[in-house]
Amino acid sequence: MLEAMRKLWGGAFESAAAQAVDRFGQSIDSDLTFWREDVLGSIAHARMLGACGVIAPEEADRLVEGLERILREGPDALPRDVEDVHTAVEARLGELVGPLAGKLHTARSRNDQVATDARLWLRGAIDGVLEAIKALQNALLEQATAHRRKVMRGWTHQQPAQPVTLGFHLAAHFWALQRDGWRFERVREAANLCPLGSAALAGTTFPIDREATARELGFAAPIPNALDATSDRSFVLDALHAAACTLLDLSRLCQELVLWSGAEFDLVRLGDEVTTGSSIMPQKRNPDMAELIRGRAARAIGHWTAVAAMLKGLPLGYNRDTQDDKPPLFDAMRLTRDALGLCRLMLESAQWNTAKMARDAGDRASTATDLADFLASRGVPFREAHERVGRLVRACEQRGWRLDRLNGARLRELDPDLPPEAAERLDARRAALRRESLGGPGEKAMVAQLRHMKRLLAKPGFPSLV
């Protein structure tokens, strides 16, 4: 097959390229990902050529008819014994309209063509990711609302810290996704500029209308400089960065699901549809999807670093190196959308062990800060209150007592100067729901936050971070 590979060039060459060269340079398998975008770009280009008089209007009509048939046929009708998708489309068009197909490439180059295809494909891929982010945010909102009063342990340094609620914890992931959606929308804006008509690097002598093709393809505007239009791949790097950031956020959520579903935590049971078994241990329920997302976040980071390293030394003008920017882009965007959907499924299937959460919430002296705050509210300098409560915590540890289960008598035994009502501050549920400052887990604060989240979900897109 490779010996007879069809190309759009070769007139100045006396002999054919070596098979290894053809094989190493072929990109058709990857390029078929955006075959549709390539055909749509060609339709816009053909119409513009006819409207500007570069080719006869009836020729433009025949080209468009042939290209629209290719759209209906789908990618299976495209030849594979070719160098890239551009050659495949033109070859199939030649089978449909004859030698006229050769006029389609007037006033353009594969350089501006591939840049246009990539931007069109990315624009659609981002739309899919944004939809998946909204769906996951909606699942988080539902879970946060349902569990806004369910007290649990909060951590810092992965050590027990203060009581919070499950709803409060899950809501935190909502806001990370809001940033991810906002970031992807900015990438979409940066990608929504049209290179088509820039040709190889310096435009063309034909009287074309780049505004018309940009408008037909839904771009905001043509890229003003033809050399920049064919050289720029910053939009790919931006997309890879946004994908890596999103997968980092999903990986953190997945890490919690992995830990919390283990016997040591026993805080959640994931549904059968998102877990797997063991080939040797019948009792196992493995959170494989969460682990895979956690692992594949590393792949997304690798895609960003690989493309960044590739681009850093390229001079202006098209360079073949950038053929290798698309497989990482395709993979990262698909991975991001799939991971968002799987995280939504895991949350929707989750059965939370809220009874265990409640039992754990006050353990390890997690309400010590509340007692220190109580003393500070009575006029004791906070540093003094901090030290005083620290001594009390140490005394509890020595006696094997849980701080949150001390009654007034035992509390005064440890610190005779504490008033009886201080014991009320040691209850974990009360401690969590008492935190009513903006963004806290308190009842009123969470109601306000959930309303805020609901308002953002109701808005189209991600116009703001908050």
Structure write-up:
The structure is a single chain. With 466 residues, the protein is mainly alpha-helical. It has 3 domains: 89 residues, Fumarase C, Chain B, domain 1 (Orthogonal Bundle); 235 residues, Fumarase C, Chain A, domain 2 (Up-down Bundle), CATH 1.20.200.10; 84 residues, Fumarase/aspartase (C-terminal domain) (Ribonucleotide Reductase Protein R1, domain 1, Orthogonal Bundle), CATH 1.10.40. Helices cover 59% and strands 5% of the residues. It has 18 helices and 6 strands. Strands 1-2 form a two-stranded antiparallel sheet. The protein has a two-stranded parallel ribbon with strand order 3-4. Strands 5-6 form a two-stranded antiparallel ribbon. The protein is elongated and about 100 Å long. The two termini are 55 Å apart.
Observed structural traits:
6 strands, 3 domains, about 475 residues, 18 helices, mainly alpha, Fumarase C, Chain A, domain 2, two-stranded antiparallel ribbon, Fumarase C, Chain B, domain 1, Ribonucleotide Reductase Protein R1, domain 1, about 60% helix, two-stranded parallel sheet, about 5% strand, single chain
